[in-house]
Design goal:
This protein has twelve helices and ten strands. By secondary structure, the protein is of the alpha/beta class. The chain has two domains: 215 residues, 2-enoyl-CoA Hydratase, Chain A, domain 1, CATH 3.90.226.10; 47 residues, Lyase 2-enoyl-coa Hydratase, Chain  A, domain 2, CATH 1.10.12. The strands form two sheets. A six-stranded mixed beta sheet has the order 1-2-3-5-7-10, with helices on both faces. Strands 4-6-8-9 form a four-stranded mixed beta sheet. α2 links the parallel β2 and β3.
Length: 279
Amino acid sequence: MFRQEDWVRKLEEVSTNMNKEFKTLDYKNEEGIGFLTFNRPDKLNALNADVIDELGEFCESVKNEKLIGLIVTGAGEKAFVAGADIQAMSGMNSSEASSFAGRGQKATLALENLPFPVIAAVNGFALGGGLEMALSCDFILASENAVFGLPEGSLGLIPGFGGTQRLAKVVGMNRAKELIYTGRMVKAEEAEDIGLSLSTHASKEELIQACVSIVKKSSKNSINAIAMAKDALNRGQSLSVEDGLKIEQKLFGEIFSSYDMKEGTTAFLEKRKPNFKGE
């Protein structure tokens, strides 16, 4: 019988052939875990049109890859993403700015909707568009030098890549308004206290190890079930409880036709570990 651990080993064998090259992003696949790095360290990984477009291309190219998880971080020690590239934005007119925001929102939605766990490993600054990118991941882990914020108001702007919508869902409406209105920076300890991040780690190396640990723990379960649960969670966020329950009911019924459901319940009754296929 084909087992999930066999599938992971096969991914390790072919991972070098699956790595993709981008101008502003680095990507590698190691043992079925994807590592995506924003790679403009000379600009503190700031977002410009190239980064945003490549992120969308990356999500499209990887969404059908059999990953057990994706870890997103920034190159270097100073920043995850230190916001949008202000120099690139400064000459935009209203139409161009609206188009730029639309491209950024499309990219964050693509990242948010990837069908496997996506973790933001925030080391250093995650400001403006950087925090918005992190918020589009399933959750955030931080290093001790992490700094979060949406300081757009100090530039006469508002968040444009989803910050006004996602932040409140994570930290609550009152806290989101306070952070956006004041533009103040939040350090790692407070970010954990208010639920913006899950945990804080002493170094970037320990941060990445913690992210890998979560991905490996989740991989012991059915990746198919995780994908469907993620779909229900994400789609239900913008709906009433009643409408969200309808989505859950529909997906709950659909999963009963899957191999993993049959294998998981059979293994439980037979008192053995399941051999999931991810189907």
